[in-house]
Amino acid sequence: MMLTNKQIGKIVFTILIASLLIGVFLRSSNNTFEESELNTENIMNHIKKLSSQEFLGRQTGSTGDRLAREYIKEYFYEIGVEPAGVDNSYFQSFSTLVPDVDNEAVFIVESNVDYEEKSFEMYKDYSVVMSPNGGGINYYGDLVVVGNDFLRIDPSEIRDRIVVIEFNYLTPRVVSYIIESGGKGVLCSTDTNTFSPPKTLEKTKSFDVSGKMSESILLGYISSDVYRYFNSIIDKNENRTLSEPIGIIEKVRIKVDIDFPVVDTANILGKIEGKSSNDNILLITTNIDGLGVGTGDKYFPGAINNTTGIAIMLEIARVMNQQEYPPDQTVVFVGFSGQEQQFSGSGHYINYPIYPLDTTTLIHIESIGKETLEGLSIASDPIAGTIIKDRISMYAEDRGLKTILSRQGYGVSTQFSNKKVPSVLVSDSSGTQNSYEDNYEHVDEKTIDNAANVLLQYIKRDVYKDSRIDYLSSTEKFLLILLTLVGVLSYMIVKVYNTFPNTSIAGYSIENIFFSTPIIVIRRFFTTVLPYFIAVILLTLLANIDPGTNMKEISGKMTSNVSWYLTLKKSVLYLRSMLDFGTYQSDTVGNIFKVIYDSSKLSIALVATSLLLSSVIGILRGMYEGFRSKKSKLGSLGTLIFFSIPDVLIVLIVLFGYMLVSRQFPNVRDILPLKNFILPLFTLSIIPTIYISRITLISIQEELVKDYIKNEKAKGYSRHKVIFVELLPSIVYRIVDAIPAIMTMLLSNMIIVEYLFNYKGILYYLIYFYNRQDVHRFVPLAITLGLIYIIFTKGSQLIAKMINPLKRKGV
């Protein structure tokens, strides 16, 4: 019988479909993303430009602020990023309060007989703050230097004076005490402890007015040099005794004017439309404002804090717009203004969101560019943002980029996460203070390049869904295609042979083809070798799934921190290096071959002893129940109830019992075999004992009603002979046949027993290496465990065949 053209067409069509599918699998995605478009030099040029004197520090509401927004707008327009602001513009306008600090402030200690007149410069020697009760002052009088004893000073010593203290920060408690004591102000030195990290707060300008109240006094920070200078003046005072907790510095003039105008500014927004029909939005945000001018002709460049964030955002927008395909989701680039004013810009966006917050995720870029060995810091809220944080870190690690996971402080990402928006903050792991020295020269280009590439890897994999199998070699791709095609061909030959055994293909009998040597070899390969290889692949995939796997709802859909792209890639790389034995021989736990030997020996000893103990006790108990009165059903019911108890509960009950006994009899704790072997053995044997007992009971009940047993009894055979000559072999046959099921039971229970009893067998180390994601050691151990299972089960089948005459005859 010849195959019809239609049947041949089906076979060819199936092979073509398989080829197409494997080709699609290898190609995996049309959303190719070329991160090679990234040009770090572009980022550095943006930083140099925006931190230059032309922008004068970009203080909110200033000319520099307006110029910065225009610069970003023109660049968005130039590279083709669409407007995403209000009324199809690039802007979202708002107003905010911005303190106006006197640029010609005065701080002079006038001369007397003991010291010369000395002037101090704002943002070098001292600074003033507005929160919580800071304001301007025109003061001439005394400074009271009290160190860290200010709460012990009599209020009369503080009244109508400015107090100089040592403290970590100016807290509301400190300020309230000074106000209640009638003080005119407080200057704080935060950098007096040699063992604490430096806090040069006197070098930065503050716009923070959070908690501002109507009553204002002078609040500020002084440098450690100024504080030591004050103490040197006090030491020259011959009238001061060592027991006095205060020192007085006379004739001090401090004048600084502070106004609180409301200014107009705007956030700037551009977007790249995604191809997905859903409304999910990714916000890539940064702060665009700075501290503006200082004293004289000085200004705060704000290079690291935060022109680097603007520059990285602009370059990412350019790279994305250069791609051949659009992203899967819409990406909106946002520059928040007014951020030095209690995050006014981001707060305004949250209050008046242009895109729904419930379908938004956020990545905020801030303070990047300081040289660090740790790499880019990735922080998120502890709930929704952890998924994105983990995925950013995993993609970066895959490409050898440096990152560190850290905790999130209050900022933009916190504002959004408070509204249940999954939010991530990327920044330097070490804070950078915004001072005159924060300029272009201090930006580390390698750090910038690392940060930009970290973000692009996330965009490539999750925003563009680029999951191409680009790590397979040409040989591996060819073998995969060949294996698939051969498998499909073999399947079709078997299918045709089973359906049309008398068919001929191209003049060849399907029977001859089916039984030809090449086809037999192929079938044997697919039925014997391939299943084991697939088992190794599955083990490898399992080992490469992070034990910290998490799943949460983000933007209305369930999302996991597991990247199947990375899991598959790591698995392939491991399979590629499986035969490199050098990788198995060095680790903190020692040579893996020694670990396999030692742990296998312990596990085999535990399993074999448990199997023997369970068999003996189970058979004896089953026989006892089988020959008891049929009216007593409580024993059988008890075994069924006990059999239904969860394994974990049994282990915990044994552990709890051991604790109670050892507490009453302390010497029990010193019996090492009891804890190290006997307790695990006893716990592991409970369930198999009950199982074997049930098999024995059922066997006896079935055999006792059979004719040959009745004949034996009728001939006057003793119970002893009936049990051990006639019944016992039948029971043993059944138990040996049940060993595969018993082994499965033992191994599943051993996972709990070895882990909770700290019994360092093979399953203990399996859990240990899995938690460490040590695939090079997990997979060999898992294979060893499989071999142990096969040896026990196949050995039991061999024993069953040897001892059972029916099996020897093939019955």
Description:
Helix 5 links the parallel strand 8 (162-166) and strand 9. The strands form 5 sheets. Strands 1, 2, 13, 14, 15, 16, 17, 18 and 19 form a 9-stranded mixed sheet that branches. An 8-stranded mixed sheet has the order 5-4-11-7-8-9-10-6, sandwiched between helices. By secondary structure, it is an alpha/beta fold. The model is unreliable at 629-634 (pLDDT under 50). Helix 14 crosses helix 24, helix 16 runs parallel beside helix 24 and helix 19 packs antiparallel against helix 22 (739-756).
User: What structural class do helix, strand and pairing data support?
Assistant: alpha/beta
Q: Low-confidence parts, pLDDT < 50 over ≥5 residues?
A: 629-634
Distance between the termini: 38 Å
Radius of gyration: 39 Å
Percent of sequence in beta strands:
5-15%
Mean pLDDT: 82
Number of strands: 23
Q: What level of helicity do the residues show?
A: 40-55%
Biggest sheet overview: 9 strands, mixed
- Please, how many helices? 25
Shape: elongated
What descriptive keywords fit this protein?
single chain, 811 residues, alpha/beta, nine-stranded mixed beta sheet, eight-stranded mixed beta sheet, 25 helices, 49% helix
How do the strands and helices of this protein lay out in sequence?
Blueprint: H1 5-27, H2 40-50, H3 63-79, E1 82-83, E2 91-97, E3 100-101, E4 106-109, E5 118-119, E6 126-128, E7 137-147, H4 155-158, E8 162-166, H5 172-180, E9 185-189, E10 218-222, H6 224-235, E11 247-256, E12 258-259, E13 262-272, E14 281-287, H7 303-321, E15 330-336, H8 344-351, E16 360-365, E17 376-380, H9 386-398, E18 403-406, H10 412-417, E19 423-428, H11 445-463, H12 474-499, E20 504-505, E21 508-509, H13 510-514, H14 517-543, E22 551-554, E23 557-560, H15 564-576, H16 592-626, H17 634-643, H18 647-664, H19 672-704, H20 707-714, H21 719-737, H22 739-756, H23 762-771, H24 775-803, H25 805-808
Parallel strand pairs: 7-8, 8-9, 9-10, 14-15, 14-16, 16-19, 17-18
Antiparallel strand pairs: 1-13, 2-13, 3-12, 4-5, 4-11, 6-10, 7-11, 13-15, 17-19, 20-21, 22-23
